[in-house]
Amino acid sequence: MSVRQLCLALRQPSWRVMASLGTRGRGLRALATEAGNAQDLKPSNYGQPLFPSHPHLVRPHELTPGIPADEYERRRRALMDSLPSDSVVVLVAAPVKYMSGSAYKFRQASDFWYLTGFEEPESAVILEKVSDSRGYRMTLFSSGKDSAKEKWDGARTSFEDVLAIFKADNALPIHAFPSQLKSLASIYSNIYVDLPNASSKRSPRTARSLLRYLSPSAQSRSEYESVVDSLSIPRRQPLAPLIARLRSIKSECEQRIMRSAADVSGHAFAKTMRFTQPGVSESAIAAHFEYLCSLSGSQRLAYVPVVASGPNALIIHYTSNNQVVQDGELILMDAGCEYNGYASDITRTYPASGSFTSAQRDLYTAVLTAQKALISLCTEVASLSLHELHRRSCELLRVELNQLGFRLHTGDLERVLYPHFLSHPIGIDLHESANSDRGEQLKAGMVITIEPGIYVPPVPQFPKSFHNTGIRIEDEVLVGKEHPIILSIAAPKEIVDVEGACQGLLGLQPY
Asked: Which of 145, 213, 381, 488 could join 262 in a cystine, given CB atoms 3.0 to 4.6 angstroms apart?
């Protein structure tokens, strides 16, 4: 597909993207026929949506919605090709999280999902670098079928289907993982593995924490300790930075999913603007946004939304969302859904009463002017890094604020009015920045946010007409070779469009 074709496809609404690119011309009627043929597979025989049971979500040759099985194969091959000989890779599933004794809706560990597409808990994978034509050997560990447990929790994928569908060379029960890991760890010189919760200050960065997370409680202490010893530090290498480099450049399939995720969130923004009015609570606005995303197929929100009315917008990560919107206030809403495994992240600031005041309009225009200039620089040929883009954002905002009568002293902008960073990478995770380098030049295929903001506290050194005003405008941007593509284009941003959405002039209803 050419860049021009991709740009045209990404400008289409979500269902057209999926119909024109995902079905390769088969059309929506074909999908309906396939769905009808799969009615006898309810309940599903699998631990996640697959084409035989969920043809309305997953198309033929796709392993997860929008991602074909051969793309997962390419990801694994790219990782293993980058490693030295005599290497083994180990990844584990995310833990099940509970509240009040009940499990939250499960979300798979991002790197594990990126390489396998396997969405069940209590699972692990080992990839061994070998010299055959595939280049690696894959062993996937999972719960397998258990009719008694499935009676309560739903289906799990059989070992046979793990081999056939997920293209594993071996499929073993999860209780065999510690012994298999110990056996393989003694063979290979390079063991690439990440420790669970390694970034948490409350969790020790030790191999012991890995086995405590993975091993069944019934494991004998001697076996437990021997597996720990097999993961000695001299041979253990971090895995996350290697996968992060692969994840930083989005494939065409990933770009389409991220455009769809942004479309779902963007349309929800437009309708939520129409829904908002003085007297409604911030929590109701957040709930309305989430409801609209769910109706459009989102599996969950990508993060806790910020719905900050009036002076609450001065709190950058305001998530209490428990006050009432007043007439004349601005609403700063930072929200996004997760759709088919990929996050969206959009911020819009809009007037509760439907129209900006003169001062609100002036400050909004200043932020918008800077944001649009920054987006234009999100190209590979511009040869800029995130650090350099942030410096540009400070320069642009300083010019705009001076024109509005701000007399800025050293530190006023960076420490008070604009205290956060401009951008972060986004993809499977909301912030794909734990292993990214802000000093690296942008490359085509990266997806980043551009989110300048100004937050004016009620202090005498700043013009009084802007006191207690917070404005942030955030878009998701696909970095192009020569031209950027705004993925979040469906969310109204120009003043005329924002006011039109709020007032119902765009033909939109709240629902």
From this structure: 488
Task: Return the residue matching tokens 């798979």.
Answer: 108
Q: How many CA atoms lie within 13 A of 205 on its CB side?
A: 10
Q: 224 is written with which tokens?
A: 């437990």
Kindly give the pairing relationship between strand 124-129 and strand 136-142: antiparallel
Task: Give residues with Cβ within 8 angstroms of 399, minimum separation 6.
Answer: none
Q: Please, is 253 exposed, middle or buried when counting C-beta atoms within 10 Å of its C-beta (0-12, 13-18, 19+)? A: middle
CA-closest candidate to residue 407, choices 466, 358, 472: 466
For strand 98-99 and strand 102-103, is the pairing parallel, antiparallel, or unpaired? antiparallel
Nearest to 341 by CA among 286, 260, 445: 260
Measured CA distances, 19 to 72, 79, 323, 343, 429 (Å): 22, 31, 42, 21, 26
What tens-digit pLDDT sequence spans the chain (511 residues)?
333 333 333 344 443 333 333 333 333 334 444 444 545 588 999 999 999 999 999 999 999 999 999 999 999 999 999 999 999 999 999 988 888 888 889 999 999 999 999 999 999 999 999 999 999 999 999 999 999 999 999 999 999 999 999 999 999 999 899 889 888 888 999 999 987 654 444 444 445 555 555 544 445 556 656 676 677 667 889 999 999 999 999 999 999 999 999 999 999 999 999 999 999 999 999 999 999 999 999 999 999 999 999 999 999 999 999 999 999 999 999 999 999 999 999 999 999 999 999 999 999 999 999 999 999 999 999 999 999 999 999 999 999 999 999 999 999 999 999 999 999 999 999 999 788 899 999 999 999 999 999 999 999 999 999 999 999 999 999 999 999 999 999 999 999 999 999 999 988 888 8
Burial class (CB in 10 A: 0-12, 13-18, 19+), 357: middle
Q: Would you call 306 helix, strand, or coil by DSSP?
A: strand
